[in-house]
Amino acid sequence: MQSFVDGYNNTPLDDFDGLSPVQMDNLLRGEFHEGVVRINDSEAVYDQVPLVRMIELFLSMIDPEKGLKLTPAGYLPVAIVKALYADAPLKDDAIEAGITKLRLEVECEPVHLTRIISELAGYVRKQHGRLFLTRKGEAFRRQPAVLTALLALFGGKFNLGYLDGYESPSIAQVGYPYSLYLLSKYGAEKRPETFYAEKYFRAFPQLCSDDPGRDASCYGLRTFPRFFRYFGFLTVSDPFPRPHSIRKSDLMDRFVEILA
Question: What is the pLDDT along the chain (260 residues), one digit of tens a residue?
Fold first, then answer.
């Protein structure tokens, strides 16, 4: 019986795009230093990663002694929002299209998300209505494996559904390393979001609802413009949020390596 179980666990499955159950389990644990996917952290190319640049810019705006005073509602002041957005490597599509104006932190996704990730990562702390740098924040670029840590935090701790109205709290969040694997494997050619959504839901059918189109839309939004774009892993044919086709960037190939 044990030999049968071992044989099954090490058999490549079509539902897992050729990965065995053992490989899939290893991948989903997010152990990027070994197994199916390896992240090659290199400080030499951190400046090309939008999220790293956004966080570094944000931290530089916080006075080491006095901190940064927040609004009475607990958000970044408008002046800081505008200053951060002006140099941001990522832009907000609604703002750029003139649908909304650059004003409040919560109305500018790249700025708001950068602040949230910085807090979740422990780079800043809030006290008495101010944000202060932590020792970890002061040594941000000197932290070991910055990119790997941010990937794991973004996919595992940050709520990818925070900024949308989709019902499922789990789509894209569950199994996010598998999405990384799929994009690395198939991203050399332009492919529609639905290509990746179909493979994702084949591996995680328990996340499907009675509306496949909405499920695919939810997965595509959370995985690509809300997640991988912040790491510079994508090139797209049309502006976000809904590109017609997606291709991985050269930067992704420099960071992400498939070992399976």
Answer: 545 445 557 899 999 999 999 999 989 887 676 678 888 888 778 889 999 999 999 999 999 999 999 999 999 999 999 999 999 999 988 888 888 889 899 999 999 999 999 999 999 999 999 999 999 999 998 888 898 899 999 999 999 999 888 999 999 999 999 999 999 999 999 999 999 999 999 999 999 999 999 999 999 999 998 999 999 999 865 555 555 689 999 999 998 988 86
Which runs of E-coded beta strand occur in the chain? Answer: 37-39, 68-69, 124-127, 130-133, 234-236, 246-248, 256-258
Write the CATH number for 117.
1.10.10.10
Check: CB of residue 77 under 8 Å from CB of residue 136. Answer: no
Whole-model pTM? 0.90
Round to whole Å and give the CA distance between 259 and 38: 7
Residue finishing a domain among 142, 175, 206: 142
- How far apart CA 190 and CA 224 sit, in angstroms, is 13
Number of domains in the chain: 2
DSSP 114-183: HHHHHHHTTSEEEETTEEEE-HHHHTGGGSTTHHHHHHHHHHHTS-TTTTS--S-SSTTTTTHHHHHHHH
Let me know whether 254 and 171 are in one domain.
Answer: yes
CA gap 152, 30 in Å, rounded: 7
